[in-house]
Amino acid sequence: MSKKDIDLLKNYEILYNFFGPQGWWPADSPLEVIVGAVLTQNTSWQNVEKAIENLKRERLLDLTALVNVEQDKLAMLIKPSGYYNIKAKRLKNLITEIYKNFQDLEDIKKLSMEDARNFLLKINGIGCETADSILLYALGYPVFVIDAYTLRWLGRFDIKFSDSKRDSYHQSQALFMKNLPIDSKLFNEYHALIVRLGKEFCKKVPSCHECPFYIRAL
Ligand code: SF4
């Protein structure tokens, strides 16, 4: 693919027609999305699912319960997701800040998207991808989530972004948000489709011959 192929809305349609709806984010509640967004850092979703199952078994997928649980106990329960001591600390920080400031997740939605994003980014251990995943998938704000799959896919259009991780995040996010209707449902599905593409075809060593973009170009 090349830069001329980057009609983002058309590419969305190609992905959607090929893969169908992805049903993201796989969670029973906004709080479960928030927990999953922290646990999924540097690990596979299968590992996150095991950790979330442990939390459900202990009835800890509840804001007050997570505020009150001992950090060491939390770390043991989320062990399957890896980096469990760091993630337990991050999760406690995040949940405690939410609880202190809002008590109820619904109350965060009263903030503008910019204010909600700034609130999350001030919390230790919450970077842009985690904050935007929470904003989009847990709270329904229309923000495009950028991850390693997205950057790899864009890189294959030969688009150059900044060498700075943070700047390249914002530049690629702006590319989507300036060239697509601002629509949380669209952003939700599009990001999920890019992840699917990245896992199945647009891998480190791409399988172009089976990819919907290659098939379409034939
Ligand atoms: S796998 Fe598909 S999207 Fe990725 S480079 Fe090949 S044709 Fe393009």
Any descriptors?
218 residues; mainly alpha; Endonuclease Iii, domain 2; Endonuclease III, domain 1; 62% helix
Polypeptide structure, described:
The protein has 218 residues and is mainly α. It has 13 helices and no strands. The longest helix is centred in the middle third of the chain and has 18 residues, at 84-101. The model has no long low-confidence stretch (mean pLDDT 94). Bound molecules: iron/sulfur cluster.
Task: Detail the topology: elements first, then pairings.
Elements: H1 8-19, H2 30-39, H3 45-57, H4 63-68, H5 71-77, H6 84-101, H7 105-108, H8 113-121, H9 128-138, H10 148-155, H11 165-179, H12 184-200, H13 212-217
Helix pairs in contact: 1-12, 2-3, 2-9, 5-6, 8-9, 10-12
Bound molecules: iron/sulfur cluster.
The site of iron/sulfur cluster has 11 residues, from helix 13.
Distance between the termini: 12 Å
Outline: globular
**Class inferred from helices and paired strands:** mainly alpha
Mean of residue pLDDT values: 94
Number of domains: 2
CATH homologous superfamily grouping of the largest domain: Hypothetical protein, domain 2
- Biggest β-sheet description: none
The oligomerization state is single chain
Strand content: under 5%
CATH level 3 topology of the largest domain: Endonuclease III, domain 1
What ligands are attached or bound here? iron/sulfur cluster
User: What's the helix count?
Assistant: 13
Looking at the overall shape, the CATH architecture of the largest domain is Orthogonal Bundle
How many runs of DSSP E, i.e. beta strands?
Answer: 0
Q: H/E series, N to C?
A: HHHHHHHHHHHHH
